[in-house]
Amino acid sequence: MAEELFTEFRQRITEIILVPSSGGVFEVEWNGKLIFSKKSKNRHAEKGELIRLLKKEIG
Known about the structure:
about 60 residues, alpha+beta, two-stranded antiparallel ribbon, globular, Selenoprotein_Rdx-typ, Thioredoxin-like_sf
């Protein structure tokens, strides 16, 4: 998924930070704002969902 994000937003992303966790937590933040949380949605992101959410956030 990190590769998908980097490929799509190559010109805008200066870094991607992967933080190991436990308990199935998977969260994506953009500039400190939570964009997706597997824990709160109780599901993993669908293919293309993170790209769509980030495009909406970035504008």
